[in-house]
Amino acid sequence: MTLKILVVDDQALVRRGFAMVLGNETDIEVVAEAGTGLEAIQAAHQHQPDIILMDIRMPELDGLEATARILETQRESTRIIILTTFDPDEYIYRALRAGASGFVLKDIPPESLVAAVRTVADGGAMLDPTVTRRLIGRFAGKLGAAQNYASRIDRLTDREREVLQSLADGKSNQEIADALFIGAATVKSHVSSILSKLELRDRAQAVVLAYESGLARVGERDVEF
Amino acid sequence: MTLKILVVDDQALVRRGFAMVLGNETDIEVVAEAGTGLEAIQAAHQHQPDIILMDIRMPELDGLEATARILETQRESTRIIILTTFDPDEYIYRALRAGASGFVLKDIPPESLVAAVRTVADGGAMLDPTVTRRLIGRFAGKLGAAQNYASRIDRLTDREREVLQSLADGKSNQEIADALFIGAATVKSHVSSILSKLELRDRAQAVVLAYESGLARVGERDVEF
DNA sequence: ATCGCACTCCCCCAAAAGGTGGAGATCAAG
DNA sequence: CTTGATCTCCACCTTTTGGGGGAGTGCGAT
């Protein structure tokens, strides 16, 4: 199956350049090009590309806004790689929030661009190394505070951690009991112990801490409520 | 200037493999190998490598702990790339927190490994695409399911959303009342209304939904408990 | 063998949370 | 001006939660 690509950039020359690089691959086809954000949205709906290479600075509607709008309606089928000339700083966070799967500089070597497209098509994400570092730094920094909790969590027993996991699912004591095949009284014991060890007041705080510490992660939960 | 590399893995065969791949490059030199975490720490101090390729599962001291210890004393001069066989899931956060600059799977193509080493040496960071995606997801607080909840959330009134925010801080009804300058009874009303509108059972579930929907995001909270 | 620990479960009690069914006030829109 | 929505609060009631005691089992370390 060939990958359908949409190339979006306000400079025709740049579009052609990327299109040529990608067109050399047998399993990649550039199905459309767009020169503005609005055109991009239009083209995305019309051609349903697998991957969109999106410039940021464009007339009418910038690439990040276009990214957000496109992903609103076709998040499942289309992934977007943001291309920028340099200075990712101000844009990366907006880009990632908008739902971009990649963020690379335009001076990327052609073969790397191809690799990035394939990676993203495979469900991965590809960021420029400096962006990656920034993201890690931000991530690690944010965890500065939560690290206290992460270390406190280590003091929990295995069973207690299991119970905390269940708490982070929004389960009641009885539901946890059923899930772990133990009595409700036992769950109460564990919960009490957890709250005490982590210096928390109630299960709601336990849920917060589970997320902040990384024990629970967004999107990994089977939230059936 | 040639890059000095330390290869750490408990399997000698794996070490030799990586060493050979890297040794082919004229500007890369494998200055030492280690088979355990403790050996790694020792070798890192002795050889002051620019880059360490570090396995996770090892006897004596695992790679993540070794990473943390090494970076404690030579964070400026040495960068570490974590290598794992698969299932990055459980390790990535610990790895990034420990200060790793890279996290790649062992089945990485040789030329990509070389590229990763150069990237990290240049001050960038290199993560496996699935890891990158996870990190983005975590940062952006958005993931597939989030949309369902997000839509339910906008049925809430402004005040209710405020209260939900407070719930996601782990606050009790009284604390929310104090924070919003209203009575505890009023908070109860709002909470009831929230639970009813979102079809939740208790505040713990509300916290979960706040995170899963992106209304609350890891690291944005002033967790003072 | 004894100690500590984790895990299991029990009882009792108080506090918090949640449900129901109100009420008054405001304010924007029809 | 009436309607509907929102925000504020109340009273009454039931359920859940959380704390404070135990207590018995098994298991691994000393």
Structure description:
- The structure is a homodimer of 225-residue chains.
- With 225 residues, chain A is of the alpha/beta class.
- Chain A is built from ten helices and six strands; from the N terminus they run E-H-E-H-E-H-E-H-E-H-E-H-H-H-H-H.
- Chain A has helices at 12-23, 37-47, 63-74, 89-98, 110-121, 129-154, 158-167, 173-180, 184-198, 203-213, and strands at 3-8, 28-34, 51-55, 79-84, 102-105, 126-127.
- A six-stranded parallel sheet of chain A has the order 2-1-3-4-5-6, with helices on both faces.
- In chain A, helix 3 links the parallel strand 3 and strand 4.
- In chain A, helix 8 (173-180) crosses helix 9.
- The radius of gyration of chain A is 23 Å and the shape is elongated.
- In chain A, 45% of the residues are buried.
- The model of chain A has no long low-confidence stretch (mean pLDDT 87).
- Chains A and B meet through helix 4, strand 6, helix 6 and helix 10 of A and helix 4, strand 6, helix 6, helix 7 and helix 11 of B.
- Chain A binds a DNA duplex (30 and 30 nucleotides) through residues 157-160, 172-174, 182-186, 188-192, 195-196, 201-203.
- What's the story with the biggest beta sheet of chain A? 6 strands, parallel
Helix content of chain A: 55-70%
Q: Unreliable stretches of chain A, pLDDT < 50, 5 or more residues?
A: none
Q: Report the β-strand fraction of chain A as a percent range.
A: 5-15%
User: Ends of chain A: how far apart?
Assistant: 38 Å
Report the strand count of chain A: 6
Total DSSP helices of chain A: 10
Structural class of chain A: alpha/beta
Q: Within the largest sheet of chain A, what's the order of strands? A: 2-1-3-4-5-6
Alpha carbon gyration radius of chain A: 23 Å
For this structure, the quaternary state is: homodimer
* SSE string of chain A, helices as H and strands as E: EHEHEHEHEHEHHHHH
Shape designation of chain A: elongated
On the 0-100 scale, what is the average pLDDT of chain A?
87
